[in-house]
Prior knowledge:
The chain is an alpha/beta fold and 232 residues long. It has 2 domains: 7-130 and 213-230, 3-Layer(aba) Sandwich (Rossmann fold); 140-209, Alpha-Beta Plaits (2-Layer Sandwich), CATH 3.30.70. Helices cover 28% and strands 25% of the residues. The chain has 6 helices and 15 strands. The chain has helices at residues 7-20, 35-49, 62-70, 108-116, 149-158, 193-201, and strands at 28-31, 56-59, 86-89, 93-94, 100-101, 121-125, 140-144, 162-165, 167-168, 171-172, 180-185, 206-209, 211-212, 218-223, 226-230. Helix 1 (7-20) crosses helix 2 (35-49). 43% of the residues are buried.
Amino acid sequence: MTSPINPQDIGKQKAGAAAAELIKEGMVIGLGTGSTAKRLIEALGERVKNGLHIVGAVPSSDETAAYAAQYNIPITNLDEHPELDIYIDGADEIDPQLRLIKGAGGALLREKIVATAAKRFVVIADPSKKVEQLGHKYPLPVEVVPLAVTPVKNRLARLGAQVAIRERNGQKFYTDSHNLVIDCTFPEGITDPTALDATIHSIPGVIETGLFINLAKQIIIGKPDGVEIYPQ
């Protein structure tokens, strides 16, 4: 007996396929990190196999670089191509103002660097990622220099966050840039993402936050029966 297909997985696949159609001949693109971004890479790989030529793709993580290489997508970097035509990535939460929480996969710093290098940042997701207020479903990740992790953790706690240094398999998790991640849960959600982002950035030792504000230009929500795109 086969297990039923998860509607969330179908949504990710639909969103990834729709986003792959935005990539045109000769573009330089950015590729995000995570399960939804992998669906994009698979769809783009099929288009490359069928003759689409792109100049190159800048990956936002080592994991993405390796996965894209499996699909013969040419890899480049921001030294060779400091301005990208489009960056496509998933998100953990998306609010009505297109503000995002990202970084569940631990690539928030590189994701933000690549996103800000692109003329256009398109987010792909399934419906579960849409929220009325950020911070209720996913913790806010904060990337931190290892030397500063304890004082930064204490400062974040004084902002009202429940804080935890991210671990994987019982060990501290290090990003591709060799930093640590502190996950911050705000019990009442994040009421003012812009102010919170500025406050956290003012703490010495903080490298980046998972708040993506005024960056996303368009959202593609994949559903079993199609996609929802906004703004059109």
